[in-house]
Amino acid sequence: MVCNKLIPPEETACPGEPVVGGVLAASGFKASGVAAGFRAATPDRLDTALVCCDGDASAAGVFTRNRFCAAPVVVDRERLANGHARAIILNSGVANAATGEPGIANARQTGDDLAKALGCDADDVLVASTGVIGVPLPMDVMERGIRLSVAALGDDAAHDEAAATAIMTTDTVSKRCAVRYEDAEAGVTYTVGGMCKGAGMIAPNMATMLAVITTDAPVAPAALQACLARAAQGSFNHVIVDGDTSTNDTCVALASGAAGGAEISEATPGRLAAFGRALAWVCDGLARKIAADGEGATRLVRVCVMGAATDEDARVASRTVASSPLVKTAIAGHDANWGRIAAALGRSGASFDQETVAIDIAGIPVLRAGLPIPFDEDEALRRFEEPQVDIVCDLGSGTSSYVTWTCDLTHGYIDINADYRS
Q1: Is the same domain home to 257 and 377?
Q2: Among this protein's residues, is 250 annotated catalytic?
Q3: Is the previous residue joined to 207 through a cis bond, with omega within 30 degrees of 0?
Q4: pTM, two decimal places
Q5: Alpha-carbon distance 363 to 343, whole Å?
Q6: 182 φ, ψ to 5°?
Q7: Do 271 and 306 fall within a single domain?
């Protein structure tokens, strides 16, 4: 039996020109990454990042929905109420989560101290932390981090990379993405860039990581918030590494307006849509980097469910397959085990008839009309050597589709998390 492979919906094309860099790709910003000493075992490791706008910036944020949220999340939600910010400081190694009122006081004090150092209002400084939960934020170390990071501010490639490196925990690589696009209506070129960290405790419920995104476009605060929420929903909320949602998830966007031009807002829908596409593309690029760098991962996995009766059916089916330990370990073992995928689809809650389901693994048809078909096992093994493995499922019940980005599950994940606090 010869079957054509399933063709999933096309991915969104880049809305402009990809550029090298992260938070400093856009103009109007400075950044730094320094070693303050949050990790006693590795005191020379970069652990504090600072991103600072040259002037006042529009600001927006999306955060974890985990009810056990960290102190920095509480403080940032308060301070973003005015829609503006000047800077954000991020530390790795200590999460400042489950630390009660003292933790919230320490988060506020961090922002206040940085505001004094920068000469701006305390409400215009945001904070973010990542690391071990339940450990009080050592304020002597944070004070050193503030002092060093302010002194080290710069706007070149080295500073861009240092900031992205300083927020890493179990990440194996720093994660940056940027794009430059033309605002045809304004006749101005704008840039959107960002950095993020994330490798474990990753599951969709916004934001599944720490991220800072910058732009030199003059975006109004309300419009920036709306665009960021949409972009996060379509990118970071499509990533699963292990099914756990962090207490500290934070994604902040800052718009300096340094490239000039009239304000972008709901009153300029064409310009706002162009900015939204650029922001979404950057968020999607960062999200994929998180999945590819999942703890212990060796393969990036795209799970596309198509032909679903409803958008919700497509979403739950895709996420169930992507989060299945059996599916993820099969990928790690280079095993085209379609039975595990079919079983995950069947328990997902999506509505379909098994007689209409088709499945491809790595571009190889393995199931049609709910029944297995012969395939070349040796060819499947060869395709598992590629850095990305696609799982495409057609439920044969409608026109809705959904993509989730995940990774394989290896012994490395257990090694990292068994020894995390030690």
Answers
A1: no
A2: no
A3: yes
A4: 0.91
A5: 20
A6: -100, 125
A7: no
Work out how many domains the chain is built from and give that number.
Answer: 2
Do 268 and 306 lie in a common domain? no
Q: Residue 197 forms beta bridges with which residues?
A: 210
Q: Per the residue annotation, which of 208, 245, 250, 406 is the catalytic one?
A: 208
Do 153 and 103 share a structural domain? yes
Helix (H, G, I), strand (E, B) or coil at 396: coil
CATH label of the domain that carries residue 310: 3.10.20.340
pLDDT tens-digit profile, the chain (422 residues): 567 899 988 888 999 999 999 999 999 999 999 999 999 889 999 999 999 999 999 999 999 887 888 999 999 999 999 999 999 999 999 999 999 999 999 999 999 999 999 999 999 999 999 988 899 999 999 999 999 999 999 999 999 999 999 999 888 889 999 999 999 999 999 999 999 997 655 555 544 479 999 999 999 999 999 999 999 998 988 888 666 566 778 999 999 999 999 999 999 999 999 999 999 999 999 988 988 887 767 899 999 999 999 999 999 999 999 999 999 999 999 999 999 999 999 999 999 999 999 999 999 999 999 999 999 999 999 999 999 999 999 999 999 999 999 988 878 777 766 765 54
288 shares its domain with 304 = no
Q: Which residue has the tokens 């989060």?
A: 323
